[in-house]
Design brief:
Length: 374
């Protein structure tokens, strides 16, 4: 049996960032192990789009994992279909080079994989954990290849998709499906992201390369209709829903669909903790999932660098509660309250207009999106 101080189950962005942050804080790389079911070269080809906040860039810079291939977001335009009012958040107002960045899962894990390798962190992959056995003084990971790993502390960093996870304390099925694709328009606006609320859910367009990454949240029956459409009909429907701010939608890649829900809770025990999607799976509205996970990793690394003990995990749960709870409430409210056609939706347009003219409210929203609750 291999013995470590800290075993991290899941070598995605949050898991590898945690490993690198631990080494940067003085933890011996030989006392850390990453365990993942997928080879790094396979994970590096994953085309999924991720949104990184300005605060997340600062975390990645600490471990030498910046730059990553990414498109900068300089402005975020928020609106409600069919209602007056909108809000615009800009980088110049908040004195940062970018509000955030749009990257691909494969690109960020490639960079982080290189960082962990240079730092000397051991990776066991591809290998699947089949059981976790916790005792008073250690945790044993039983591996599918017949081996095992023993560690003082185990961190769960492998979240999976909503609907495929064990239920946590707070679970909600939004009755929405996200349609994912890359699209192009006839009149793109450089570095501007859009979040448009509709009666079925938010529609986000994130600038990426010479087009946009689309995340269109709709009811499951609508999703099936959109998936069955030809490209021309799909692009027309998208244009009708989004409007003409970017001209015509001219092309789209193959569409994918994912069910959306909330599954969050301070999962853990005396010697185990969870970060990222393993701790909280969120609605994609406002793009906070990975950013919250990286903040989890930063706090946990600071504590475990002082000692891989249950006391540090208890402190971690306390320190992360406020940021997690606020981010969960924010995304949950936006996903539910703004995704219907009730008369109260007229208030959303008024609210957006008020935020746009009331600088403190706009600043608070921007701070939460860039840094979370600090």
């Amino acid at each position: 049996m291999n013995n470590y101080d800290i075993a991290i189950c899941g070598a995605g962005p949050a898991g590898m960032a945690l490993a690198a942050l631990l080494v940067r804080r003085g933890v011996a790389p030989g006392s850390i192990v990453l365990v993942d079911a997928k080879p790094l070269d396979v994970a590096s080809t994953d085309p999924r789009t991720l949104a990184l906040s300005w605060g997340s860039r600062q975390i990645l810079e600490q471990i030498g994992a910046w730059p990553v291939p990414a498109t900068e977001i300089h402005e975020i335009h928020v609106s409600r279909k069919g209602q007056f009012g909108r809000s615009m958040i800009t980088r110049t107002e908040h004195h940062v080079p970018a509000l955030g960045y749009v990257t691909r899962y494969g690109d960020i894990v490639t960079v982080l994989g290189g960082v962990c390798e240079r730092l000397g962190v051991r990776s066991l992959r591809p290998v699947r954990v089949t059981a976790i056995e916790e005792s008073a003084d250690h945790v044993r990971l039983v591996l599918a290849d017949g081996g095992s790993v023993s560690a003082a502390i185990v961190v769960q960093a492998e979240g999976g998709l909503f609907g495929e996870q064990d239920d946590k304390a707070t679970k909600r099925d939004y009755g929405q499906t996200a349609i994912i694709a890359q699209v192009k328009t006839s009149a793109p606006v450089a570095q501007r992201a859009y979040e448009r609320f509709t009666g079925e859910g938010p529609l986000a367009l994130l600038p990426q390369d010479d087009g946009y990454s689309l995340v269109w949240c709709v009811r499951p029956d609508t999703a099936q209709t959109l998936l069955a459409m030809g490209d021309e009909a799909f692009l027309k429907k998208l244009g009708d829903t989004f409007g003409e701010r970017l001209g015509r939608f001219t092309s789209a890649t193959r569409r994918l669909a994912f069910p959306l829900g909330l599954n969050a809770g301070m999962a853990g025990s005396a010697r185990t903790a969870a970060i990222g999607n393993a701790a909280q799976t969120l609605h994609p509205v406002a793009g906070q999932g990975l950013n919250l996970g990286l903040r989890d990793a930063a706090v946990l690394a600071r504590l475990l660098a002082q000692g891989a003990t249950p006391d540090m995990l208890a402190q971690y749960a306390d320190l992360r509660r406020q940021d997690r709870d606020l981010t969960v409430r924010l995304t949950d409210t936006m996903a539910r309250v703004f995704a219907n056609d009730s008369p109260v939706q007229a208030l959303l347009g008024v609210s957006l207009a008020a935020i746009d003219v009331f600088t403190p409210a706009r600043s608070l929203l921007a701070q939460l999106m860039m840094y979370g609750r600090r």
